[in-house]
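Recap quiz, item 2
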Amino acid sequence: ETGVTQTPRHLVMGMTNKKSLKCEQHLGHNAMYWYKQSAKKPLELMFVYSLEERVENNSVPSRFSPECPNSSHLFLHLHTLQPEDSALYLCASSQVWGGLSLAGDPTDTQYFGPGTRLTVL
Amino acid sequence: DQQVKQNSPSLSVQEGRISILNCDYTNSMFDYFLWYKKYPAEGPTFLISISSIKDKNEDGRFTVFLNKSAKHLSLHIVPSQPGDSAVYFCAASGNQFYFGTGTSLTVIP
């Protein structure tokens, strides 16, 4: 496997279910991200992990719980979601978070996984 | 308030002609700009970027132009090919990444 992978690709769940989304990056990156993409809206950053520590949490409801056990894996645990949470959830990784290389070009270019299409019934 | 805007939700261009996708931003502190391309059922893939210290970056058929005074950047694709048909997202980097809503490009054979 190369790049950023996400499983499952599609998920349908009821409002009382508990499920988890998994992301794995094979790029040797140190930063990982969760984004939500809803129809006709910009990508919304949810969480950022840098060196396995959470560095950003953009006012995301507690029914979304991230976990980063190591720099290659990122999970998003889902619990008692609402129908409006139905969206495409994208994972991304970058070499560093907010970094600047010696050449002056940022090293935080993000590489995305294919996403998980989540439907909450 | 949206800090990165792509005001054209869609664009159709004839094969072989130039495609110009536009993006406007509001925060003058952004220091790095990127374009991503997204096919259906796939995540966005990085296409090309530009640092705020430059005004042009070229990579093959793709060129990004940055006009800092106008807070505007554009992506030029020439010549356009049918395989370029996708949604293109503009992004800006400040304390985090901010994405536009995307422009769906259709290249007509």
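The first strand of chain B starts at residue 4 and ends at 5.
Residues 11 and 105 of chain B are 5 Å apart (CA to CA).
End of item.
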